[in-house]
Specification:
Elements: H1 3-23, H2 31-38, H3 42-53, H4 57-75, H5 81-87, H6 93-104, H7 108-128, H8 130-141, E1 157-162, E2 165-173, H9 178-194, E3 202-206, E4 219-225, E5 237-241, E6 244-253, H10 258-269, E7 275-277, E8 282-286, E9 292-293, E10 298-309
Antiparallel strand pairs: 1-6, 2-4, 2-5, 3-4, 3-8, 6-10, 7-10, 8-10, 9-10
């Protein structure tokens, strides 16, 4: 096996482990189980993981559990801290509080209050400036861009059932926003052309919440649906977008407005829906007939959030 191909195997295995961790945070995750997922020897796995991920396995698990808990504290304001703690693998509310305080410098309850107050202040500020922004919004409205995603966007949310979908992807790690757009244009699109994948439905899978995860650690997988016989080579890897129930927000706008759209879905719609987040990843779904205007940057997609009964 060539050196390059060997490295690709290592990368794919580490992707598989991080994906498994995110989807099983509510369970006991021991070194032997994760080593088996990665197809590495348990004796060497801990050192390999630290070398590749830049942090020990224990530190990575604590960080991901705290980050997912932070997201759920805001998205599910009526859910008790104990339930959130158990849902991300802590044995008690006290255990979450200890780890959370070490990670964010405050308790889960304080975090929830601080962030809720911040969101409320931002919402009030946006409403106060709505008239001043009206002319600008009307200008963009001619191109079909929604510049202010608010509670009204909840009316565009539908709960859908999806089947498990095989995809191939390229991974980007770093700040979300414009760098992700550049990644799509300079790396993903040429890769799709080379592999004859144009015309396939596309996915942008966000594994981290940029509000709680350091920008340099945010992971994003950009890819598309693939035929059963597709062989991923080079920097490309295969995975399956999990099936099940999703809340899908129909979105038309520019990349810069993704954050308020996600916020609206999680802050305005989810708490009143009778549903809650689960451990599957959130993603952008671009159907085959979705449109993109390179002149304005306006795109169409569905923002999909995995949900289950509250």
């Amino acid at each position: 096996m060539s050196t390059l191909k060997s490295r690709d195997v290592y990368v794919g295995r580490m992707h598989r482990v991080s994906e498994y961790i995110d989807q099983h945070l509510d369970q006991y995750l021991d070194l032997e189980t994760l080593a088996e997922v990665a197809h590495f020897s348990p004796f060497h796995f801990h050192r390999l993981f630290s070398a590749w991920m830049g942090e020990t396995l224990g530190a990575y698990l604590r960080r991901r559990r705290c980050e997912v808990a932070a997201t759920r504290l805001l998205a599910q304001p009526r859910l008790a801290v104990l339930q959130i703690a158990l849902g991300v693998g802590f044995g008690s509310a006290e255990a979450l509080t200890h780890a959370f305080n070490a990670r964010f410098g405050c308790s889960p309850t304080s975090w929830r209050l601080q962030q809720s107050a911040s969101d409320a202040a931002k919402s009030s500020h946006d409403q106060a400036n709505s008239k001043a922004d009206q002319a600008r919004q009307e200008k963009f409205g001619k191109n079909g861009v929604s510049n202010s995603i608010s509670a009204e966007a909840a009316m565009q949310v539908e709960v859908i059932e999806r089947k498990p979908t095989p995809v191939a992807y390229l991974r980007y790690v770093g700040p979300y926003g414009d760098p992700v757009s550049t990644f799509w244009q300079t790396q993903v699109y040429p890769w799709m052309v080379t592999n004859g994948l144009l015309g396939q439905a596309r996915y942008g899978i966000s594994h981290d919440d940029p509000k709680v995860t350091a920008s340099e650690q945010c992971r994003y997988d950009a890819g598309c649906e693939i035929p059963a016989n597709f062989v991923a080579t080079g920097d490309a890897h295969r995975t399956v977008v999990p099936g099940g129930k999703y809340a899908a927000l129909k979105y038309k706008g520019v990349v810069a407005e993704f954050p308020p759209a996600w916020d609206s879905l999680l802050r305005d719609w989810l708490p009143s829906s009778g549903l809650q987040l689960d451990s599957r990843p959130m993603f952008e779904y671009y159907p085959v007939d979705s449109r993109y205007d390179p002149a304005t940057g306006v795109l169409e997609c569905k923002l999909c959030v995995p949900v289950m009964p509250l």
